[in-house]
Design goal:
With 513 residues, the protein is mainly α. The chain has three domains: 107 residues; 219 residues, no CATH class; 74 residues, GMP Synthetase, Chain A, domain 3, CATH 3.30.300. It has 14 helices and eight strands. Strand 6 and strand 7 form a beta hairpin. The protein is elongated, with a radius of gyration of 57 Å. About 1% of the residues have low confidence.
């Protein structure tokens, strides 16, 4: 029993102690929550104040940025306003200047109008005075209008003749100083850079024979061999008393060369009779055709000309057997091609085209016996037919001044042609042609009024004319030299150029007694 009471008391005491402990714990819990809430409130208030402060600072920063941008915009506006003010001021100044110029222009126009009216009145007055003067002159001179006009025209003609001579002398001197120096430099450079040998060609060939007995075999029984040979080849065979030589003659150098080669083959073969002659000549003709093509190709290679039509190549090969005043035309064409090309390159022109023009300029000489016309026209027709361009065709047609030059290459070809023909030893004339050309030159010069004597010197390359000083003045002498040169160009045919020199001498003689 006491144990139960003790147990009960212990239980009650335990309950009381537990109740007290629970109250204490709950009191502490309430106290901790209040503190926590107060701390949270204080922290929230602190955060709110910090946030307000940040917002204010951000607002202040943005306000400062906005004010800076506004200040910059206002500065730009003020700058633009100043520029507009300056532009307006300049525009006003320009308007003011234009107004002044307009007023000056109006004043000038007014002056010009006044001047025009004044000049019109003066012109009318001058016409009236001239008319009165003419009528007075008619009355004084007792000449009609036509007679006075004729005398005036004669006087003007004399004055103009003298002035023309003076102008010719002046301009010729100025042009000669520049042009001759430049032309000599260009031509001299071209000739110096290209120099070729010259050999004179003839119209006969000689064939050596081993013995004079061969002459009889060449002639044949009753001359049948030589007649057959001449008929087949178209050449003349001259068998005379000259020992060891038979002469083959023909103006066609191709036929002459065929005859010479065929005769050599016949002499070497020993069988000389009509059928063998025809066989050998046919064989030689075929070989000559091949040789002509080879010579044409060789000439193209030497001249540096490419892409020629085969027919033109063949014609260039035939020029190897054509001579002009004893000058080989094929070699002459090659030389003209080089000279023309060199001069063109010095002038900054197309050297390839210039060489082509110079190379083909005498092509007509290979076919002038087959077509009508001179060799310039024949050559131009052939070149046009086989597709050559306009510069080459024109150079062939105009290198002897038969037509007016339209291309500079034509002038260069004519100059190179004259240089090639005028070289010492390049060409040779017969004595009869040489004498006749000099006589024609002197006769033409003596046909001009005021000429006393004329002398052809330097192998016909210069004509010196002595005029009467009482009939021809210095100025008239200058005009006379030009007219004489033009007459020579239009009348005579000559290689190179001819210099015309007018000599006018005045002598005053007096005797002292």
């Amino acid at each position: 029993m006491p144990e139960m009471i003790v147990g009960l008391i212990a239980g009650v005491v335990g309950l009381i102690v537990g109740y007290c402990i629970d109250r204490v714990i709950k009191g502490r819990a309430h106290k901790t929550r209040d503190e926590i809430l107060r701390d949270i409130e204080r922290d929230a208030e602190s955060r709110r104040r910090d946030l307000d402060l940040q917002l204010k600072e951000e607002e202040i920063r943005k306000r400062e940025q906005l004010e800076a941008k506004m200040e910059e915009s206002r500065e730009q506006f003020r700058t633009r306003e100043r520029e507009l003010d300056r532009s307006q001021s300049q525009l006003e100044d320009q308007l003011s200047a234009l107004g002044k110029k307009e007023r000056m222009l109006q004043a000038t126009q007014q002056k010009l109008a006044d001047r025009t009216r004044f000049m019109d009145s003066r012109e009318a007055e001058l016409d009236r005075l001239l008319k009165d003067e003419q009528e007075q002159l008619y009355r004084i001179s007792e000449l009609s209008r036509e007679q006075a006009a004729e005398q005036l025209l004669r006087k003007l003609e004399r004055e103009l003749s003298e002035e023309t001579g003076a102008l010719i002398m002046k301009h010729e001197a100025e042009i000669r100083e520049v042009c001759e120096e430049k032309a000599r430099e260009i031509i001299g450079m071209a000739v110096q850079r290209y120099a070729s040998d010259h050999t004179s060609e003839t119209t006969v060939s000689t064939v050596d024979i081993p013995s004079d007995e061969v002459k009889g075999r060449i002639i044949g029984r009753e001359g049948r061999n030589i007649r057959t040979f001449e008929k087949v080849t178209g050449v003349d065979v001259i068998v005379d008393d000259t020992p060891g030589v038979v002469i083959v003659s023909a103006f066609d150098n191709v036929r002459r060369e065929i005859g010479r080669l065929a005769l050599i083959k016949l002499i070497q073969d020993g069988r000389i009779h009509p059928s063998r002659i025809e066989e050998i000549v046919a064989e030689t003709t075929k070989e000559m055709d091949e040789n002509i093509r080879r010579l044409g190709l060789q000439a193209c290679e030497e001249a540096g000309v490419r892409g020629l039509h085969p027919r033109l190549v063949e014609l260039m090969g035939r020029l190897h057997f054509r001579v002009s005043y004893s000058q080989n035309v094929r070699q002459h064409s090659i030389e003209v091609a080089h000279l023309t090309g060199l001069m063109a390159e010095q002038l900054g022109l197309d050297g390839v085209l210039a060489r082509r023009c110079g190379f083909l300029h005498d092509l007509g000489k290979a076919a002038d016996h087959e077509m009508e016309g001179g060799h310039p026209a024949v050559g131009a027709e052939l070149l046009k037919r086989y597709g050559e361009n306009a510069e080459v065709v024109h150079a062939a047609a105009g290198h002897h001044d038969d037509i007016r030059p339209e291309y500079i290459y034509t002038v260069l070809v004519a100059a190179a042609d004259a240089v090639s023909a005028a070289r010492p030893g390049a060409r040779r004339e017969t004595l009869e042609k040489y004498v006749r050309r000099l006589e024609e030159l002197e006769a033409l010069a003596c046909g001009f009024p005021g000429v006393e004597q004329a002398f052809a010197v330097q192998a016909g390359r210069e004509i010196r004319v002595i005029v009467d000083s009482s009939k021809v003045t210095d100025r008239q002498a200058a005009r006379l030299s030009r007219e004489m040169a033009n007459a020579i160009e239009q009348t005579l045919t000559y290689p190179g150029e001819i210099k015309v020199t007018i000599l006018r001498e005045t002598r005053n003689v007096e005797y002292a007694r």
